[in-house]
Write a structure and sequence with these properties.
This protein has 238 residues and is mainly α. The chain has a single domain, classed as Growth Hormone, Chain: A, CATH 1.20.1250.10. It is 63% helix and 0% strand. The chain is built from ten helices and no strands. Helix 5 runs antiparallel to helix 7 and helix 5 runs antiparallel to helix 10. It is elongated. 34% of the residues are buried.
Length: 238
């Protein structure tokens, strides 16, 4: 297995000990972390970002990511119920997800060991990598006959949430956009399953769709988990 990608730059650190605000005030009173607006270590390379804005940011990110995971689960369950009963090989198919090269942690214990900047970058990269597949699922006329209205409407709503989530993170932490896009470009990470998705072979189309929706459910769970960890840390309610 290839090693996980490493991020360079300033580390967005997190002190899990409650009462750390008081300690920081005693050691560096000029920061005014708890009673004022400055939160120098709550965002990736963001110094002087108002704490209340960061709390609002990650609260919105957490709500959006949770909604995306719910929609992705609905899409997968709907497709599985509709098609996999007659084609059990879909269920046994190996999950060859286009996001696998990221090696983004799936276990909460591992994710909790990541610093906040890296978690934010994982979220943004996963959003970038899923935008195109979601658009194709909802727009491609040649595959719509295989998809229920529930899957199509869920995909459209997922796109809206995906783009909104990207916009929130890009607006608040614009300095991480270039490093994230550089990683995706250098590692040649992108979705390349369009031709199979519109194949004239119905079994191929359905197999690809099953795998794609299964991967989407998995990755949306990761984003939901990372977002909850970040929201938990910034609110100091872990």
């Amino acid at each position: 297995m290839a090693p996980a990608l490493s991020f360079r730059g300033h580390q967005w650190t997190y002190n899990p000990v409650r009462g750390s605000c008081l300690l920081l005030l005693l050691v560096m009173p000029n920061l005014l972390l708890c009673q004022g607006n400055i939160c120098p270590s709550c965002g990736p390379d963001v110094f002087g970002v108002p704490l209340k804005f960061l709390r609002k940011t990650f609260s919105r990110v957490s709500r959006l990511s949770h909604g995306m995971h719910n929609l992705s689960t609905i899409m997968f369950n709907e497709f599985e119920e509709q098609y996999s009963q007659s084609k059990p090989e879909y269920i046994n198919a190996t999950s060859d997800c286009h996001t696998n090269p990221l090696h983004a942690p799936e276990e909460r214990e591992k994710a909790q060991q990541m610093n906040n900047e890296d978690l934010t970058k994982w979220i943004l990269m996963l959003q970038y990598l899923w935008t195109v597949p979601l658009i194709e699922i909802s727009n491609e006329q040649r595959i719509e006959k295989n998809l229920s209205d529930t899957i199509i409407s869920s995909a459209i709503e997922n796109i809206k949430k995906c783009i909104k989530l990207q916009a929130i993170l890009e607006r608040r932490f614009n300095q991480i956009i270039l490093p994230v896009r550089r990683i995706l470009s250098e590692e040649h990470m992108y979705w390349s399953g369009y031709e199979s998705l519109v194949s004239s072979d119905e079994d191929v189309r359905r197999s690809v769709l099953y795998n794609l929706l299964k991967c989407l459910r998995r990755d949306s769970r990761k984003v939901d988990m990372y977002s909850k960890i970040l929201a938990c840390r910034i609110s100091d309610k872990c």
